[in-house]
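pinging the channel bc i need a second pair of eyes. not urgent but kinda urgent?? the chain im working w is below, pasted from the shared doc
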Amino acid sequence: MNLVMWSLRDVLKTLTGLTMFGLGAMGPKMRFLTEYDPSPEEVLNNIIPQYVNSIIFGALRESVASEHAARMTAMDSATTNASDMIDKLTLKYNRARQASITQELSEIVSGAEALK
């Protein structure tokens, strides 16, 4: 059984070669009739800098995303703290107002008792 792979060189689909793999009793035998353009070294020289750039870009994106997440968490915490502070101050204000009203009522009742 032979597995045949065709390689195409350019958009015009010019045939550059044929690679055949013979699978027989002796094990796989390989014959290369194909020349690859560009060479593996050129491919690596172009791919490695792009890979490093993408790794650095990914790290910078993660850094920006974590900064935004930290800011969101800080703002949520500040909002919660402000709401708690407003609730406490409202309670203090209402207690002071209620104490003032109670004092005025007791003064009015005392004055009315004194007039009788």
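so The CA atoms of residues 17 and 34 lie 5 Å apart. and Helices lie at 40-115. — does that match what u expected or am i reading it wrong
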